[in-house]
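Researcher: Go.
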Amino acid sequence: MIDPAYHYKSIVKVAECRPMAWICDYVEKNDENQIKQHELEEMVNKNTVAFRNFLKKKTRYTFIDYVIHI
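Model: Structure:
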């Protein structure tokens, strides 16, 4: 179960890394469009496994859960 108290905007505020801020901004701005994981992977220069691990570590969400939650 996803913790509703863990809001994505708090991630950007405490994020010391730009890639997480880029991901949050991109997902928020493109929520009406189809968001593709490979586009975000390219944006932050990570392969699929590294991106999944990075996002899970920073947000506690998988990519799909993160996009749905926002």
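Model: Helices lie at 8-14, 18-29, 37-43, 48-59, 63-69.
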